[in-house]
Amino acid sequence: MTFRQLQYVLAVAAKGSMTEAARALYVSQPSLTSSVQDLEDELGIVLFNRTNKGTVTTVEGEEFLSYARQVVDQVDLLEQKYNGKKRGRQDFCVSAQHYSFVVEAFVDVLRDCGGDEYDFRIRETQTYEVIEDVARLRSQVGVLYLNRENEKVLRRTLQAHELQFTRLFVAKPHVFIGNKNPLAQKDALTLRDLALYPRLSYEQGDHNSFYFAEEIQSTLERKKNILVRDRATLFNLLIGLNGYTICSGVINNALNGPDIVSRPLRVDDYMEIGYITHKRVHPSRLGEAFIQRLKARAKL
Question: What is the pTM (predicted TM-score) of this model?
Answer without folding.
Answer: 0.79
